[in-house]
Automatic annotation (TrEMBL):
InterPro entries: Cys-tRNA-ligase, Cys-tRNA-synt_Ia_DALR, Cys-tRNA/MSH_ligase, Rossmann-like_a/b/a_fold, tRNA-synt_1_cat_dom, tRNAsynth_Ia_anticodon-bd. One of its GO terms (molecular function) is zinc ion binding. It catalyses: tRNA(Cys) + L-cysteine + ATP = L-cysteinyl-tRNA(Cys) + AMP + diphosphate. This is Cysteine--tRNA ligase. It is found in: Cytoplasm. NCBIfam families: cysS. Residues 359-420 form the Cysteinyl-tRNA synthetase class Ia DALR domain. The keyword DNA damage does not apply. Zn(2+) binds at C28, C213, H238, E242.
Length: 473
């Protein structure tokens, strides 16, 4: 029974999906105008860990996360770089994929782009106008926040307190066009010098930021979704506005559970990360310096709602932990391959594994209590180390233990199973091709040498009628 902390009610609630066994979740993705910084990575890792736990617990997770690919920051960055907005966003979408893969962040089930949903956004905005929730003002379209009951509830703020904040963020022109300072743009009329515009019933323009998430979440996951996630800084105004637009449009509750991750601080002084402070760390740069799985583990083992302090000490510690987990796995795996390993079940070890699984789930069921889960994993690691040194081992139960251990550690995004990466695979394929050519030329000495070279790397060759196959030892 999984309990999650719902920002909307500020309580831990029992998670009940709309459809049994399925989790429909939407997480706000990055604006693709630069390499992602560690704040973006934190959010992606927090929700990837949550997603992986639901999957571990047997759910099917439909995970939708967008790229915001039209926005003021993008227009500005493209202009500075002297390239089109599309060139800029394509580059950083690709960079996001490359930077998140080593962190074992699973690709989203759907990764929609705002610019590929313009027609749907225009239709949604037009509906809001028809419903009386939105109005046209000199090429812009604004949402009447005050018309939506309970506006601001998610941020636990009163609309009149929000109003002051809202008016502070506006330029005079926008303020003059609004009926009420608290209203927000769902469509922005184009400035004369802007190249990235679309025709709409209200003239050329582009979507406001918030509207894309409403339209795409509803399109891919339905009118009501199970979980909506994002950074805690998004609760207001972004998520507050998503709720108002979506619920005004559908007349239904938009999301049953709102989950928000905490900030990242950099350095040991606990200063909130900010570009102006000069501690703007991109994942792209960081991956050259740190072991990706250590960064992943460090971020995954800080509770998602708590602030995360990125320090060199924390990374160094996580690097050691990753090594310890992988060594425990490899050592026992090696021990189980010895000839004396018994094929008979070891009921003692089986009972231990069942207990670890239960405790791991108890920890994670409690709003993803990763600290407690890590305590279980540490005990599990010790148990594996002890078993690897035992006089009698069961290869059957031993492998069950390794499978369960790997699955729990993978929830936190660390892969303990030595795997063949793409580069290695390519190297092996090339060796095999060279050996085949040598055999064809009857150069058996070279062919045997290559076989031995691969054997030394744990690769076994099989000569079949269809050609040479290779497998891991
Ligand atoms: Zn969003």
């Amino acid at each position: 029974m999984i309990h999650v902390f719902n920002t909307m009610t500020r309580t831990k609630e029992l998670f009940k999906p709309l459809q049994a066994g399925i989790v429909n979740m939407y997480v706000c993705g990055p604006t693709v105008y630069n390499y992602i910084h560690i704040g973006n990575a934190r959010s992606a890792i927090a929700f990837d860990t949550i997603r992986r736990y639901f999957e571990y617990a047997g759910y099917q997770v439909n995970y939708v996360s967008n790229f915001t690919d039209v926005d003021d920051k993008i227009i500005k960055a493209a202009r500075t770089a002297g390239i089109s907005e599309h060139e800029l966003t394509t580059k950083f979408e690709q960079a996001f994929i490359e930077d998140t893969l080593p962190l074992n962040i699973k690709p989203a089930t759907v990764r929609p782009l705002a610019t590929e949903h313009i027609n749907e956004i225009i239709k949604f905005v037009a509906d809001l106008i028809t419903q009386g929730y939105a109005y046209v003002a000199k090429g812009d379209v604004y949402f009447r926040a005050r018309k939506f009951p309970d506006y601001g509830h998610l941020a636990h703020q009163n609309i009149d307190d929000l109003e002051i904040g809202a008016s502070e963020r506006l330029d005079d022109g926008e303020l003059a066009r609004k009926e009420d300072p608290v209203d927000f743009a769902v469509w922005k009329g184009a400035n004369p010098d802007e190249a990235i515009t679309w025709d709409s019933p209200w003239g050329p323009g582009r979507p406001g930021w918030h509207i894309e998430c409403s339209v795409m979440a509803i399109k891919y996951l339905g009118d009501t979704i199970d979980i909506h996630g994002g950074g805690q800084d998004l609760a207001f105004p972004h998520h507050t506005n998503e709720i108002a637009q979506s619920e005004a449009h559908t007349g239904k509750k938009f999301a049953n559970y709102w989950l928000h991750n905490g900030f990242v601080t950099v350095g040991d002084d606990n200063e909130k990360m900010s570009k102006s402070l000069g501690n703007f760390v991109t994942v792209h740069d960081l991956l050259n310096e740190v072991e990706p799985q250590a960064l992943r583990l460090m971020m995954a083992t800080t509770h998602y709602r708590r602030p995360l302090a990125y320090t060199k000490t924390a990374i160094a510690e996580a690097t050691q932990v990753v090594k310890r987990l992988q060594t425990a796995y490899t050592n026992l795996d090696f021990r189980l391959q010895q000839d004396d390993a018994s094929p008979v079940e070891d009921s003692n070890l089986a009972a231990q594994v069942t207990a670890f699984k239960l405790k791991f789930m108890q920890a994670m069921d409690d709003d993803f209590n990763v600290a407690n889960a890590m305590t279980v994993i540490n005990d599990f690691t010790t148990a594996l180390n002890v078993y690897a040194k035992a006089t009698n081992v069961s290869s059957l139960t031993g492998h069950d233990a390794l499978r369960e251990f790997a699955a729990e550690v993978m929830v936190l995004g660390v892969n303990v199973q030595p795997s063949l990466d793409e580069e290695n695979t390519k190297w092996i394929d090339e060796k095999v091709a060279t050996r085949d050519a040598a055999k064809k030329a009857k150069d058996y000495a070279q062919a045997d040498m290559i076989r031995a070279e691969l054997k030394a790397q744990g690769i076994i060759l099989e000569d079949t009628a269809q050609g040479t196959r290779w497998k891991k030892e």
